[in-house]
Amino acid sequence: RLRVVRAALLQPERAPMSPDEMTLVLLAACGGALDALPEEEAAAALRGGSASPLLRHLREGSPQLFTRLAEEQSMSKAAARELEVAVRLFVALKRASPSV
C-alpha cells in the first residue's frame, strides 16, 4: 500500500489537489478498497493530482462527498462509508473494463 499512498501524494504542478481532494484520495489509498486492483493500477488511479482517475470518478458519481466534506470540515462515519462505496464501485468498473 505504501507505493499507492506515495502515488496519491505526487501532484503535478498543473493540477494540485485541494485539501478536501487530498483527504478523499488519502482515505481511499489507505482504506483498502483499492487493494483489489494490482498495485500499479491502484497507483495509476491516484496519479494526476486533481485530474486523477479516482477523483474524476468521485466528482462524476459522488459529488456530494466534496460538498459534505467542505460543510462538515471533517469526515463523518457516513461520509467515510459513502467514500468506500464509491471507491469500491470505481474498482469494480476498473476490473470490468480496463479503459475506465
Q: In sequence order, what are the helices and strands, one letter per element?
A: HHHHHH
Cα distance, first to last residue? 21 Å
**What share of residues are in beta strands?**
under 5%
Which percent range fits the helix content? 55-70%
Radius of gyration: 12 Å
Q: Could you name the ranges where pLDDT drops below 50 across 5 or more consecutive residues?
A: none
Class from secondary-structure proportions: mainly alpha
Largest sheet: none
- The overall average pLDDT, rounded, is 88
Work out the number of β strands. 0
SS field, number of helical segments: 6
Silhouette = globular
Could you describe the 3D structure shown?
This protein is an all-alpha fold and 100 residues long. Helix content is 68%, strand content 0%. The mean pLDDT is 88.
Kindly list the characteristics that best describe this protein.
mainly alpha, 100 residues
In brief, what are we looking at here?
This protein has helices at residues 2-9, 19-31, 39-46, 53-61, 63-72, 77-96. The chain is mainly α.
Note the topology:
Blueprint: H1 2-9, H2 19-31, H3 39-46, H4 53-61, H5 63-72, H6 77-96
Helix pairs in contact: 1-2, 1-3, 2-6, 4-5, 4-6
